[in-house]
């Protein structure tokens, strides 16, 4: 059975790229905003990993991830943040929440795949 990845991004081009790169190996659930993602999670869904954009309208990636990590249920779900923002590492440090990985856009698809594999294999060992 394929591992399930929740992808949260408002950029169609990024969603198409992620779908192309990851859909062969993973079941992708695609949501266009943090609000849609929270609604999906509130229905009892439990992805193995979450990939989220940092900068989205309405409910941005930092608010989305903060809500996840504060909740007891999704606290241990690995998160990879994507962003085109400058000083991404600094911004993540300012969020003061644990994010397992992050990549600046544009990112190398092979790097993303290897980070996903590493995070999922760490989960399997726990």
UniProtKB/TrEMBL annotation:
Positions of post-translational 4-aspartylphosphate modification: 53
Pfam families: Response_reg
Start and end residues of each Response regulatory domain: 4-120
One GO biological process term: phosphorelay signal transduction system
Keywords: Phosphoprotein
Translocase in keyword set: no
InterPro entries linked to this entry: Bact_response_regulator, CheY-like_superfamily, Sig_transdc_resp-reg_receiver
UniProt keyword Phosphoprotein, yes or no: yes
Protein name in UniProt: Response regulator
Organism: Arcticibacter tournemirensis
């Amino acid at each position: 059975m394929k591992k399930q990845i929740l992808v949260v991004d408002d950029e169609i081009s990024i969603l198409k790229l992620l779908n192309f790169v990851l859909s062969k190996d993973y079941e992708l659930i695609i949501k266009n905003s943090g609000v849609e993602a929270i609604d999906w999670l509130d229905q009892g869904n439990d992805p193995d990993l979450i990939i989220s954009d940092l900068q989205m309208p309405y409910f941005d990636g930092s608010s989305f991830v903060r809500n996840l990590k504060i909740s007891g249920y999704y606290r241990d779900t690995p998160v990879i943040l994507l962003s085109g923002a400058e000083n991404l590492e600094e911004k993540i440090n300012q969020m003061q929440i644990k994010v397992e990985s992050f990549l600046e856009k544009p990112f190398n698809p092979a790097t993303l795949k290897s980070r996903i594999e590493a995070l999922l294999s760490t989960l399997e060992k726990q």
